[in-house]
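User: Could you check the structure of this?
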Amino acid sequence: MGQVRIVTDSTAELSPDIARELGITVIPLNIHVGRERFRDGIDLGALEFFGRLESTDSLPFTTAPPLHVFEDIYRTLGNETDDILSIHISAKLSRTVELARRAAASLIGRRRIAVVDSLSTSLALRTLVMAASEIVREGDSLDEAVKLVRAMMPHVYLVFFVESLEYLERGERIGRAEALLGTMLSIKPLLIIEDGEILPLEKVRTRNSGLDKLYEFVTEFPHVEKIAILKGANALAPTELIDKLRLAYPGLDLEVITYGPVLATHLGPEAVGVFVYEGL
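Assistant: Sure, the predicted structure tokens are below.
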């Protein structure tokens, strides 16, 4: 009954128009700023979120969608198809996958629902979702879509240069002493999302060095199919990095986006990152 339906979450940076056109259901995470709660991408977009950051002293955080939201969506889609593929932000960054699996378990025997932990987020997640959407629209099965997504997962990368250590400290990813020492010595980290976690990759002292390292990270791949640049709303546009990557990869469309609130709660509003998909 019908083709496989795709579900993801708002951290995939998928525009409403594209999601609507491709029939992808996007479930918003909740964003908490001060005492207010917003649905990511519905009540609050990236730029509005960054604006609110400047007016609050409390650390923003995100929460997963409620269990009943997944249950309602799976039941609704179950009226259109027997098979659902739900691909989400890393379980180490959000409880979204956990709740999706609980909702899927409640419908066992009525519909086939495969829940996949992408071990990533943002454009890495979007790339997996778009690839799955493409093959199911061509008539491929749920099992084939899951197989493709899992095959692609080790080949998508997100690396960030972080200007300020404040959010890493407030999010308890580094200690206060390390943050203070890093600030005093002008040490700025490069971070990578690996096996679902945000982990330190390297340390640099200047913005230019950080951007050079991002360029080196991309160009070390022998083959690249997709690249993009992500930046916080308060980050200066990495014009030189953009120009160098366009020169190095003239055949690729280099997308530049403002990353969303979920990444911002971990990285702050001034980070710059690169996304790479090296292909299969």
